[in-house]
Amino acid sequence: MYITSGTSALLRRASHSSSSRTGKRVFSSLSKKPASPSPNSNSSHSVGNQQTRSLSYFSAARWSHGVDWKSPASLASQIRISSAFSDTLLHRKIATMASENAFKGIFTSLPKPGGGEFGKFYSLPALNDPRIDKLPYSIRILLESAIRNCDGFQVTKADVEKIIDWEKTSPNQVEIPFKPARVLLQDFTGVPVVVDLACMRNAMNKLGGDSDKINPLVPVDLVIDHSVQVDIARTENAVHENQKLEFERNKERFAFLKWGSNAFQNMLVVPPGSGIVHQVNLEYLARVVFNNEGLLYPDSVVGTDSHTTMIDGLGVAGWGVGGIEAEAAMLGQPMSMVLPGVVGFKLSGKLLDGVTATDLVLTVTQILRKHGVVGKFVEFYGAGVGEISLADRATIANMSPEYGATMGFFPVDKVTLQYLKLTGRSDETVSMIEAYLRANNMFVDYSEPQQERVYSSYLHLDLGDVVPCVSGPKRPHDRVPLKDMKDDWHSCLDSKVGFKGFAVPKETQEKVVKFLFKGEEPAELKHGSVVIAAITSCTNTSNPSVMLGAGLVAKKACELGLKVKPWVKTSLAPGSGVATKYLQESGLQKYLNEQGFNIVGYGCTTCIGNSGDLEKTVGDAITENDIVAAAVLSGNRNFEGRVHPLTRANYLASPPLVVAYAIAGTVNIDFDKEPIGVSKDGKDVYFRDIWPSNEEVAEVVQNNVLPEMFKSTYKAITTGNPVWNELAVAAEKLYSWDPTSTYIHEPPYFEGMTMDPPGPHGVKDAYCLLNFGNSITTDHISPAGSINRDSPAAKYLMERGVDSRQFNSYGSRRGNDEIMARGTFANIRILNKLLNGEVGPKTIHIPSGEKLTVFDAAMKYKSAGQDTIILAGDEYGSGSSRDWAAKGPMLLGVKAVIAKSFERIHRSNLVGMGIVPLCFKSGEDADTLGLTGHERYTIDLPSSVSDLRPGQDITVKTDTGKQFTCTVRFDTEVELAYFNHGGILQYVIRQLAAKQ
């Protein structure tokens, strides 16, 4: 499913009008106001300004537990303040919406069991269309949204019919509009979003427009969770020290975000130290069903983090988008998406003893990756779904990006309702959720006969077939059963350099490097030695069974006298304060502390590369002896260079396995046959001796995970923390840019912008900046981790007086385009074919033959007025939804990317930044066509957008005489409009300015 943001109905109308075929006329058509628009029911704001003003002070509480972030008043207090007059206005508003909607005939009341009503809703059963009964539950959410927002303008009856007829229309890649109920951000992607919004306000001013038009129209939640690093580990005060360093490094960023929460309406910022965005979303922010001023509808969310899909485990439709797409959605643009196919994944049976949710999700990831689910929804069903916990479902949904799906969806059932109560949602709220979903045929009851649903394709997994496993050493879908781990490791050492190979000569595979840890304690490293063991990431730290399972492993190990070696950097970063509470309540945290797994902070940490430095003697031992060191983490991404520059082998594993591998000290071990250590009485201890049974885990979960823990944790979140509360920010609506800042900088996207769209651009005699193979990830394109001291970004910082100890990470400096442009393609593990096998962030400047950093080469091309393109293989842009992976190349002057295939979000981001994505024809790539990257490339595109169409074939010519056909990957008419305007943000500004 290819997702962009825009007004699809308008584009279709514009593209078919006879005389408005020039770029300027297309824009004029796009900018027209409807004769009688209906309100956007996803927001407390409506399209009409007058309605917005009169109703704004009656907006519903932002927080799912009934606490308004910006006010100490509780929901009950707010209701008491409202007058009878407000009730009258709300009823009038809902009645007006219904009268303007083409489906007003199915707008009905949802009664409460004891009298009165929960609210009103659009009833799918009232359509009396048998096709709806067979629709996947995930598609029903798209259908309800289209019906509720159907105004004959942005969403038409024809759009609704496409969704109802999904079984026939989805294979045809038809386009539909979708309006998400809310937007979710984290700080790495959130800072550039707020920077862009602030910059858009300035641009609107320069065009003579009203800068207040740049304001979120749907609820926006931003959780600061990506900034904490594991600087301090294995100590009781690690949390305090790391948080102190986090604020010191990021004070300017945090102040900027706090300014944004005040300057922009409808935006909530959750302070640092609160937890991981997806766990906070799961445990607290998610509504499941919105009750927006008496209008009921399903919760849905798009987020600027690819693992937004975790919320699919709660029955909330959510997926990741690029930051630029999220901005458009925030500003009221409907999302244009291709109606997806849905893979039905049937689960049966039960997990065997000793098998964890992590083992299950790694197995599911491998199956789905093999099946091919890119651009599709995956919907889980069958009796086996009822056998796994909500937390296990969230774990599976979380890794949707790793198996390639847009969503991994679990419809709401009784297990969902039980989880909502466990996490502190009120009985009345849960009652409303169940009543609405049952009334609208969106609830699954496995105790009742199931209506047969139609899927695009079908898969089945017996949970009893899942075995303990890990994934690695370089990709999440390279699953390795635990029993095969030792053999697989030796195969990786033998194999040539690649996703499953390190090419270590046989004669050096057993070498032992001895050194003095911290210059004092005798230590040794071998190939496969574990130097990082991290319980981290949204994937697992939201799941009590694996977190408490890790505590049980630590307890058993402590009782037997086993201990993790001191040179292994161990860490524990819970996804929320709830995990800390149940680990302490169970008494298991003390055993984790004894093994070095002290809590280091509340955020993503190691999973996104915020693993901090290795102790110097360990780092020196690795680099000076070319050791293939290992990291074992309970994360979701293990791409090379992501976790830590010095760990070439990175394995994803469950939290209990992380502890086990930390104790073993190596991944080169057969847990079935070899001892994991020696007990205090001198006996060999095996893996089975420290591994808890499912019954042991279930008992400790049952006794120690309590509703009051969730309530008290999230009550505390709404008060912030002292350091955050003391941040002073300006009250101005327009941001005062500081030209000396190395964190926040006004980007150049709108320089010289006028109201006239620039029109499409081709590429003339372009040089190849980089020539890549397969699986170039967004971590390769725009790394989030540490800034190498020899990099162009480091040089820029040092020239401005920033000491290397204050470099922070690329992720933390995403608000500064100067640094991010210099950090583009700065991954030290990147492999560029122009360098003939040399690994690193450099390239060949073709005209001169010089070997330069990618940034310096790009600037040399730009200064000479020369276009550049990129050649790539399969899955270009896979990994995190990182808008800087598109913004950075644009700032480097890249005009087009020619690849075998693109990751969904990244392709959309390229379009959003005005870069042309092209795909080689099936069976072809740069190698088969004999392209070396030393050619010059010309891509002729029509000068009028009306002469372009989605998926059009064009010819690419080279100066050597070779030419080949590619498919232009503008997948919808809306994307063509973005390209015509020079990018999505320019399109939105012109549209909003024209509406005045």
Q: The biggest beta sheet, please?
A: 7 strands, mixed, barrel
* Content-based structural category: alpha/beta
- What fraction, in percent, of the residue positions are helical? 25-40%
Radius of gyration: 27 Å
What's the arrangement of strands in the largest beta sheet? Answer: 27-30-31-32-35-34-33
Specify the number of helices.
Answer: 37
Shape designation: globular
β-sheet strand percentage: 15-25%
| Overall pLDDT score | 88
Give the CA-CA distance, first to last residue: 34 Å
Number of strands: 35
Residue windows where pLDDT falls under 50 for at least 5 positions: 1-90
Could you explain the architecture of this structure?
- Helix 10 runs parallel beside helix 11, helix 31 (792-799) runs antiparallel to helix 32 (817-823) and helix 36 (973-981) crosses helix 37 (984-994).
- The chain has a 7-stranded mixed β-barrel with strand order 27-30-31-32-35-34-33.
- By secondary structure, it is of the alpha/beta class.
- Helix 34 (884-891) links the parallel strand 30 and strand 31 (894-899).
- It is 35% helix and 16% strand.
- The protein is built from 37 helices and 35 strands.
